[in-house]
Design brief:
Elements: H1 8-11, H2 20-54, E1 61-64, E2 69-75, E3 80-86, E4 89-94, E5 98-101, H3 105-113
Antiparallel strand pairs: 1-2, 1-5, 2-3, 3-4
Length: 114
């Protein structure tokens, strides 16, 4: 019988000796992918909407989260905007309910021609 030059107990060492970092590497990679694909674009979009809400002024045509189109007539409070929806109809909406600006007809026609 041939003798092995190395102790068999040394060959049967614990396979988990790579360290904790190697074990958590897949989780770190998954978090990185989620951050760049989901979290970062959402933060950018939120920042863009906050800037748009901060720069609202009288006369802007806007659309609300409920789908109501209107023109800003006045600001009642820091958080309340009065919209003119029809000739004699004005409604108060929360500033946070405004989801976007509507392009003016002249600007939209100019963009289509370019």
């Amino acid at each position: 019988m041939a003798r092995l030059p190395v102790n068999p107990l040394v060959l049967a060492a614990d396979p988990g000796t790579g360290g904790a970092f190697v074990q958590f590497l897949p989780f770190i990679l998954i978090f990185g992918i989620f951050y760049f694909l989901l979290i970062l674009p959402q933060q950018r979009q939120r920042k863009k909407v906050q800037e748009m809400l901060a720069n609202l002024k009288t006369g802007d045509r806007v659309i609300t989260s409920g789908g109501v189109y209107g023109t800003i007539v006045s600001f009642r409070d820091a958080n309340v905007v009065q919209l003119q929806v029809a000739q004699q109809l004005k409604i108060d909406v929360a500033r946070s309910a405004i989801t976007g600006l509507q392009a003016v007809e002249g600007e939209a026609a100019g963009k289509d021609k370019k």
